[in-house]
UniProtKB/TrEMBL annotation:
The keyword Endoplasmic reticulum does not apply. Belongs to the ABC transporter superfamily. PANTHER family: ABC TRANSPORTER, ATP-BINDING PROTEIN. The lineage of its organism: Bacteria, Bacillati, Actinomycetota, Actinomycetes, Micromonosporales. Keywords: ATP-binding, Nucleotide-binding, Transport. This is ABC-2 type transport system ATP-binding protein.
Amino acid sequence: MRASRIPGMTSIDVRGLTKRYGPRTVVDDLSFTVSAGQVTGFLGPNGAGKSTTMRMIVGLAAPSAGSVTIAGRRYRDLPVPLTQVGALLDAGAVHGGRTAYHHLLALAASNGLPRRRVAEVLVRTGMEGVAGRRAGEFSLGMRQRLGIAATLLGDPRVLIFDEPVNGLDPEGIRWIRDFMRSLAREGRAVLVSSHLMSEMAQTADHLVVIGRGRLIADTGMSEFMRANGEGTVLVRTADPAAFAQRLSTAGATVREGSESSLVVSGMTGEQIGKLAAYHGVALSELSPQRASLEDVFMELTSDSLDYQGATA
Ligand SMILES: Nc1ncnc2c1ncn2[C@@H]1O[C@H](COP(=O)(O)OP(=O)(O)OP(=O)(O)O)[C@@H](O)[C@H]1O
């Protein structure tokens, strides 16, 4: 018993979780929590053990050691699991010959969920118009939506998505990103995996980074940004030399970017904007450079990539 843990606040609790396949330890003493009302990004290079961890959370693989609980209970002790946790682990796993409606209806029926939920989740995911079409005819984006609709059938407080934007076009990516944010706003806990930092930067509130099955970072997104991604801000203005002088005087480090832009570090975009306003300088661009986050992630996980290369 942990007296400090407030019931309902921590939705997934992973403790010392370990998975061995023969001599290989693919998840190694992993501990982290996933909180309600947040999108938690689960990041790691390919093969880091994200899918295996997610499979253990929902009881599809047995831990070699350690434990996972959802709202304080092990998955197998949940009376109607779909009402507690929805998981999209493999979007391809849809019966192609069934219509979207019948796919969802079969799932609802086999889990003892009311029929009306089918119509509700179809509306929620914007799929009413295609409910009568066979899933086999769907684009990847629509199959993903159908998979997400299925996770919502039991109206669970905890949602788990494994690489949901993989292979989607920008519109599909944006839809999923917005959808996850809206689920978190409703107070649900959302755990979403990715091997790309850039996908998380705009989606996640919290980050859990793993490599070689081990925890590398467990941190708030903004904290992570401040510590690692502070990087640079790209600035464009009619007289870059004069503004560069102002920036340097204010304590920033400035270098010349492409096409007469300025690459500024040591000041936030907001501070630069205020400085420009103070001196009456018009800026035509002021953009924080997030690319460095991807670099930080690569740097963080480079050991695990080396390991992968060596064993491949
Ligand atoms: N059933 C299994 N038997 C043996 N090894 C397995 C099994 N399932 C996964 N692995 C191995 O465990 C490691 C972690 O795989 P996992 O799929 O969890 O990683 P991941 O981080 O989700 O990566 P990806 O994004 O590529 O799926 C991989 O090296 C994989 O080959």
